[in-house]
Amino acid sequence: MTMGTSEAVLQVLSGAVPHLFGSDPCFSKSDSIFLSRSYIRCRKKRGSRPMQLLNYSRMLKSSINIHRFPGVGRVLYGNIPIEQSAFGNYKCQRAESASGVTAEDGNGAWYVDNAKKFSTINGMVNAPNVLELKKVEELKQEKEGFTSNGDVPATGTGRDTFHKVSIDPIEDEAWELLRESMVYYCGSPIGTIAAKDPNSSNVLNYDQVFIRDFIPSGIAFLLKGEYDIVRNFILHTLQLQSWEKTMDCHSPGQGLMPASFKVRTIPLDGDDSAMEEVLDPDFGEAAIGRVAPVDSGLWWIILLRAYGKCSGDLSVQERVDVQTGIKMILRLCLADGFDMFPTLLVTDGSCMIDRRMGIHGHPLEIQALFYSALLSAREMLAPEDGSADLIRALNNRLVALSFHIREYYWIDMKKLNEIYRYKTEEYSYDAVNKFNIYPDQISPWLVEWMPNKGGYLIGNLQPAHMDFRFFSLGNLWSMVSGLATVDQSHAILDLIEAKWADLVADMPFKICYPALEGQEWQIITGSDPKNTPWSYHNGGSWPTLLWQLTVACIKMNRPEIAAKAVQVAEKHISQDKWPEYYDTKRARFIGKQAQLFQTWSIAGYLVAKLLLADPSAARILTTEEDPELVNAFSCMISANPRRKRGPKSSKQTYIV
Ligand code: GLC
Asked: Is 447 in contact with 461 (CB distance < 8 Å)?
């Protein structure tokens, strides 16, 4: 007898978390040093982690004493590095570095080798490199003996080294700007500021460290072998997770990660001559529109995995507090609600598009990040009795989520024609048109736009509503995470190639296509003057998306597509001063209200370059289904009355 789908899935997957950790994770000496320089504000935290909170508050008391700068008349600002020697008894300590190898020895040679490789991709990217080849050759000889094997380098802090071996002026500039955007806390780097335009006074909240914006910065640093900033970011934002946060007396769930935080320097209580630094998070309670950033925690998990994979330092993900942090995020996402769908139900503006754009419901971007975070967490969670239920829920969700998205979000010519001929008002368990989509919803633009070859995942699916807009980040990250099947992923790339003039044009990459115009713009955005048609979130073009495009292309073994996009960006992104976004249908103007020197535009470009130079490094971001999930998925497909895909597995591990 064959079991029902969900039972089968359960049986296949129970206890399926890989056993990564042999030893009992506990605090090391260095961890307690790290905690001791945690924020003073932690005293206000609620007791979500009782055991460690005891530790923290004890530590924090002492940290009040060691954070004084008696007699120092200077106020410290978060984004200005603190010269430790300048402060008498300032005792903040750096997190230990992951290995002893310096960039001086490792990075430089690696960089030169790969930059050379990159310059030959398609014979077109990085033209300036060619001019520099002689210099590169000389440097290479100089460095002989230190050369790495082309893998991700060991570690280091290669600022000076970089300048010695760098071969591309745009990249050079980008690294310099990225380093200038670094934010320090107690003398250690913990993130990068969202934008740093020296000539702008209108900074809004761009002087904060945004979680989502830091991801490309973090990846760039990881790929460069500079692990400390990423480790610090991970551990400090983890502390912010259990911050007391309320809006008009209501508190959101405990696993929520902030959208952003700021390092503030304030006078120490009762002592006018001393200052202390505190981290001040924003969970959306101050953000424009008061939106909770659902994506922050998901990105945090993805970065945590990338850190471990790149640095080889698994001690961070093994820590008790980090494991607890992962579980808190998962619990928040996996909590039961009123939902019929396995997709995450969120409000408008809960991700990169952080203001009203009609993406409330089950937007693709959140689903792709959710899937990616679930797979990443599955890899990192230490097996223990207490989390068996959570792991079971996680496994079930992975299968149901991938089935739902692959099946119901996918459109191409064939599917569109199917929808065009849909019957409606089907009341039954095996309806074809499950969500009661009225064919009239297929807009004229889509009929024109859909290429014969290619397809994509739609932006959102609700009862009687398919949002047919193409949202780039959701589609790109569906490829990276494997939420889209291999065939679907290739079809998405086919579509990107076919629609190059719409999606890339003068600057990669359109955030969504097409823009909302006229009455639709009025009703859906609330007549948002920042989101006018073909501007900002409403069909604007965002250079930061280059890095996600690059990871997706590399995963699908089609890096030349990303290389071509990088080449487009390189034509003027530096002259334009690294804008946050571009406007107009073809991305011809720097965005109306775009910040300049936007850090994630800079970092996104750098990550794209670094990965194209060493495509194998993209594995720190990509995830694959393991055989157990594939098995469970095919079991689910065969249990679906509507579609039977592929042969049943011959290994009937899920038969009672
Ligand atoms: C804008 C973007 C958001 C980003 C923030 C900081 O609000 O919509 O995605 O995180 O700016 O750059």
From this structure: no
CA contacts within 13 A on the Cβ side of 299: 28
Alpha helices in 244-363 (DSSP H): 294-311, 315-318, 320-334
pLDDT at 642: 54
**The pLDDT value given to residue 6:** 44
Ligand 1 pocket member 354 (CB < 6 A): yes
Which pLDDT score, from 0 to 100, does residue 242 have? 64
CA 205 to chain centre: 20
What stretches in the chain show pLDDT beneath 50?
A: 1-12, 14-165, 644-656
Ligand 1 probe mutation, 213, 359, 528, most atoms within 8 A of CB? 213
Options 3.40.440.10, 1.25.40.10, 1.50.10.10, 3.40.50.1100; CATH of 190-637: 1.50.10.10
Question: Which residue's CA is the closest to the ligand 1 atom numbered 12?
Answer: 194
In sign, the C-alpha dihedral spanning 64, 68, 74, 80 is negative
Nearest to 395 by CA among 8, 4, 14, 19: 14
CB of 212 closer than 6 A to ligand 1?
yes
Residue 398 and residue 378 in contact, taking contact as beta carbons nearer than 8 Å: yes
Residue 49 in contact with ligand 1 by CB distance below 6 A: no
Predicted confidence at residue 643, as pLDDT, reads 54
**CA–centroid distance, residue 352 to ligand 1 (Å):** 6
Q: Please check whether residue 139 is in contact with residue 108, taking contact to mean a CB–CB distance below 8 angstroms.
A: yes
42, 239 contact by CB (below 8 A): yes
Q: Whose CA is nearest to atom 4 of ligand 1?
A: 352
Q: Is 194 in the pocket of ligand 1 (CB under 6 A)?
A: yes
Q: Where are the domains of the chain?
A: 190-637
Q: Report the distance separating Cα 474 and Cα 458, nearest Å.
A: 9
pLDDT score of 287: 63
Tens digits of residue pLDDT in 201-231: 777 789 999 999 999 999 999 999 999 999 9
- Is the CB of 318 inside a 6 Å radius of any atom of ligand 1? no
- Three-state secondary-structure class, residue 272: strand
pLDDT for 387 equals 87
352 lines ligand 1 (CB under 6 A): yes
Measuring CA to CA, how many Å separate 10 from each of 16, 268, 371, 398?
A: 10, 54, 18, 12
- Ligand 1 atom closest to the CA of 288, numbered from 1: 7
- Position 532 scores a pLDDT of 98
At residue 591, the pLDDT reads 98
- Which atom belonging to ligand 1 lies closest to the Cα atom of 194? 12
DSSP code per residue over 21-86: --SPP---HHHHHHHHTS-GGGGG--SSSHHHHHHHHHHHHHHHHHT--TT--PPP-TTS---GGG
Which of 212, 473, 578, 595 most suits a substitution to test ligand 1, by most atoms within 8 Å of the C-beta? Answer: 212
Residue 193 Cβ < 6 Å to ligand 1:
no
Give the whole-angstrom CA distance, residue 317 versus residue 324: 10
282 CB less than 6 Å from ligand 1? no
Task: Tell me, using a 6 A CB cutoff, whether residue 545 lines ligand 1.
Answer: no
Does the N-terminal peptide bond of residue 509 adopt cis geometry, omega within 30 degrees of 0? yes
Nearest CA to ligand 1 atom 3: 352
Q: What is the DSSP letter of 406?
A: I
Rounded distance from Cα 354 to ligand 1 centre (Å): 7
- Measured in degrees and rounded to the nearest 5, phi and psi for residue 544 equal -60, -25
Count of alpha carbons within 13 Å of 332, Cβ hemisphere only? 24
Measured distance CA(626)–CA(604) in Å, rounded: 29
pTM attached to this predicted model: 0.77
